[in-house]
Structures are given as structure tokens and as C-alpha cells.
Amino acid sequence: MSKIAIKIQYLFLLVFFTLMGISCSDYLDVELQNQMTLQEVFDKRSTTEAYLAQVYGYLPVEEDPIYAGGGDGTVVSRSDEALFSWLYGEWESNRQGAWGVTTEYTHNWERNYNGINQATIFMNNVDRNTEINESTKEVMKAEARFIRAYLYFSLFRKYGPVYIWGDQESTSLIRPDSVDRHSVDRNVQFIISEYDKAIEVLPLKITDEAWFGRITKGAVMAAKSRLTLYAARPQFNGAALYKGMKNIYGEYLFPQAEDPDKWEIAAQAAKDVIDLGIYSLYKDTKESDPFKRAIKSYQGVWFDKWNEETIWGKWVNDAFSYNVRCAPPRVVKEGYGGYAPSLKLVDSYPMAKSGRYPITGYRNNGEPIVDPQSGYRATGFTEGYIHPLDNFAPIKAHNSCIGRDARYYASILANGMNWINTYKGVKLVTFYTGGTSSYSASGDCVKSGFLWRRFSDPTNNIEEGQWGQYVWPYYRLAEIYLNYAEACNEKPNRNESEALKYINLVRERSGLNKIEEAYPEVIGNKTLLRNLIRKERMVELAFEGHRFYDVRTWMVAEEESNKPNYTLNLLATNYEDSWERTDRVFPGKLVCEPKHLLFPLHQSQLSEMRNITQNYGW
Fold first, then answer.
1. d(CA 444, CA 439)
2. Mean pLDDT score of the chain
3. CB atoms < 10 A from the CB of 378, how many?
């Protein structure tokens, strides 16, 4: 909420360059002088466009799971879907509950409000420009309006309800001691109203590939779907934990009772995106083998850039920082091996034949409780196993790796598998002590027994420094299908058939049978379908930044956390013994207390706004 001077110091054009992935454009070839006045900025087309580029630059960095500066991608490393290898990272202290009102890591309150203010300044001044036609200015204003609302949403999902400036600039004379957070409902209503205004103006599609990544009508509608889904879930819809909390204006910050009709709103928001009819689940059309086609279809969401499933994305022109952490140390020329899925995520992938999720829970010693109808085998090995996609040299595979959902093979590099390409020959990857990518108490190594491979394109020859690029999907259609399925299952006028239809569309892309075939007992069982939709979200949307907020808005984070970090026994000195489970490799546990469901307001904000209401437990 810092006051922004009328003088504009710097306009960060390179941020927009990174966002859009453009090699050269007149739009970016602008050199703005320091100390330009607003009149000077908005007098010229070039500087006006550059100002909008700066507003885009405030969008949260959601694609980088360790970048703290304004990033929201760090939620991956702090959720139960991941177990990053480095014990010293600030994400690890966050995982263990060692954070509070003075913790800087992940704190983005001030940055977001700066972005909100910059968007407002743009909206309030763009009409001064006489070099840009009126329709173009209206679109630019709608882009800024959406970004402003999205920054509010980014704050809302992290901190809960926040202060809404509206169309005021932060230079407005407001006494800091008179500022407090507005209610959940006011936050949601404001963001929805801003989204709706942007939807009316923005184009349905961007046809020039050079500008892919700019905001469209569908992008805003997808954002509305996620917002209304969160607003319908228990955390923001009558949670007992927050009852009685009031702001200084005398308003309850959180709804005091559940409003089931919010599920109707969420269902309609998702269906509106679907009914646009311009997006479809990505499916490979070249592979003849059905199971390989299912694997490549899931991979293609990532590797086939700007495909028809991507509703809104962001260019990441250099994939080094991500993919080097998904590469096994000592097996490849350069690999850090830190981005590892948790054993819990690995266990979550369904079985290909039965379509059932194999693990129903865990015993106190970390041993999985296996669904006997799933077809999963928790012990033993199979000699001469051929990976269903890579088709490299046969391996001695642990039986838990066999017969899994296509997404498992697209996403997981398990202990004992071969590396994903053969540019330098076939390379066996084993993570135990003395293995080819050996465990070590210090240095780069894999500590869970698995690496994340989904975002590593096998066609990139990283041995020669070819790390590739990718499009980060802020929103994609599979999420919208699962949003809709969840809302249809929960809304008062429950629509089970629609819920089943759209979860099945997601499963069908991965070669799975219908959920009612895998679980006949799901028909008429709202609770079971709810749990199955949640399992499907964990698998389908893994490592895309959903799981952290999903378990919190469902109010199940405490139940899903507060357990030791079980891994494979990489302390073992042979392959067979390394497949035992242990809590001795990765110390501590993932901690979630009631106060951790929302982030605390930082001490800097508490000092600035002396009467602002802090979150529960902080």
C-alpha cells in the first residue's frame, strides 16, 4: 500500500518481453526517460503501451517453484505433492511451520498492491492518449482491469479477504489507521464485477502468435471459474474456524454460515467457459499405440506449445532453471535433481486396468493401505520390464511401477528407470547409496526416490545445453472440467450425470475407464464422488500450483499434512532394499496447524495500518 509518486521512475519493458516471449517488436523498442510525468507517459502511443507492459509485469510468477520474489509457484514445494531435495531452502522451513509475521519468503502483499495501483493509474489515464483509437484503448483498459483483479485474487487466496481500493489510486488521502480488510463477500463480488467488465470488452482469441499470452475473454472467464469455486468451498463459505471475526467497520470478515447457492455460481462460471466451444483437451493424433498415445496426450499439454487446451499461458523462454532440477545428478552432464514428487503423489496415480486409485491410506509406519480391487502390487520386482513409452533397455522394475495410469509414466522418473532419452546412450537411473545417481547426505541428490519428469521434453538434448522452452498454463481446460464436476456434485440441485461426464472426459484422455465403472458404488454417493474428484485433481493438476490451495479451501490440509516425510530407503546400498519405505532420509514433517490455512499479514503491514485485522492464530 506504499504511496506511488506521480513521477514514473522506470518502466520495466523486459518483464513484458519475458511474459510474451517476443524476439523483437516495436511495442517494446521504447526508451523512457526517468522522471517522466503522467502527461508525458500517456501522450505517446509507445510509452502508453510500455506502461501497460509494466502492469503485465506484476502478474505473479506461478511457474517457478522456488522463486520467492512475488511468486506463487512456491506453493508446490510446500504442499504434500512434492518433496524437494534441499533441506536448507526457505520452503522447507515453511513446510515445517517455521514462519510468521516477519517471514519475508513468499510475502507479496506490497508487490501486489503496487501492481494494483499501477493498473489503476493506467486505467485512469489511458484515455488521455490521442494516438491510440478508442476501441484499442478500451481493450488495453480491460487488460489492466483484469490484471488488477487477478492481483486481488492472488492476495485473496493467500491471505483471505483484503482491503479493496476500487478505482482509487494509492495517492488518495486515506489515513492508515482507518484501513482494514473488507469481507470475503465484498472481495469476491468486487473481483467478479471487474472480471465481468473485462469479459465484455476483451477479444475471444489472440490470432497473432507474437502476442499469445495477452488476456482474452476466455482467460478471464477461466479465472472467474477458479475464484467462484474457491468462494463456494468451506474455507470461504461458512468455516467455523473464522466465525466471529470482524473488521473495524463492524462487518464479519468471513461468512457466518454456508451458502449452498455459491456452488451454483461456481458451476455456471465453469460451464460458461466450456460453452465457448473454442477449447478442447489436447490429444495426440500421431501415435498408433493407444497407451503411448495416452501418455503423449498428457505430455503434449506441456510440449505442444499454445495448444487448444491452453486457455491462458505464459512463455518461459529458458527452461534451464526448471529442467536442470528435474535431471538426475551424475547421470547427466548437469543435473541438480531437486524437484521430486512426494511418495504420496506417486502413490496417487490410478491403475490403468481397473481405473482405481490404489492407496486408500497409510499405517502409522508409513506402509500404504492397498485397495485390493485396484490391481496394485506394493512389493516385489519384475525382470525385463520395458517402459511403456520410452521403450529403451529392459529394467528390473519394482512392481508398484507397473500397470499405472498413463500420467504416471509421463510424470514420474522412478528409481531404477532409464533416463528419458538416449542422446548419450541408455542411462540407468538409481538413487540409492552407491547408485548411478547416488544418495548423499549433502550436495545435489534425490531424496524421495523419484524425480519429476513431466516438464522435461525428451527431445531436448540437455547434455548439449538444449534446455528448451515451455508455456506455463495459468489456466487449461482440464481444470475447468474438474471445477465443473466438483460444483455439479456439490450444488443444491445436484447434477451427478454432469459431474460424472466431465471427470470422465479427463480420465478418458489418459486411457482410463469411466469412474462409475471403476467404482460402481459411486452412483448416488455424493461423498464418494467428492473424494474421487479430489483424487483426480491431485493427479491431473500435479505440480501446477493447485494442491496447496485445494486442501486449504477444502479445509482438509491438517488431515493431509502433519505426517513424517516418508521416502524410499535411499540409505540402502543395493537397489532391492532401496524400495523399502522409511522416514530416516528426509527429517521433519509437513506441518499444518489451523493458523497455516491462511498466511499472516506481515509485520510491515501491521505497523503501517495499525488497526488492520490479523488472520486467525497469528
1. 9
2. 92
3. 16
As a three-state string, the secondary structure of 336-352 is CCCCCECHHHHHHCCEC
Three-state DSSP class for residue 87: coil
3-state secondary structure at position 506: helix
Q: Is residue 590 classed as helix, strand or coil in its secondary structure?
A: strand
Q: Which of 245, 263, 265 minimizes the C-alpha distance to 255?
A: 245
How far CA 535 is from CA of 313, 345, 359, 404, in Å, comes to 25, 10, 11, 15
pLDDT band, residue 454 (cuts 50/70/90)? very high
Give CA–CA dist 199/218, Å, rounded: 8
d(CA 398, CA 522): 31
For residues 602 and 110, what is the distance between their CA atoms, to the nearest angstrom? 10
Distance CA(443)–CA(206), nearest Å, equals 45
Beta strand pairing status for 470-476 and 589-590?
Answer: unpaired
Q: Read off the pLDDT of residues 299-343 as tens digits, 9 standing for 90 and up.
A: 999 999 999 999 999 998 889 999 999 999 999 999 999 999 999
Distance separating alpha carbons of residues 347 and 400, to the nearest angstrom: 9
Across-strand partners of 362?
368
For each of the domains in the chain, give its residue range(s) and CATH number, in order of start. 13-202+599-608 (1.25.40.890), 318-468 (no CATH)
SS3 at position 14:
helix
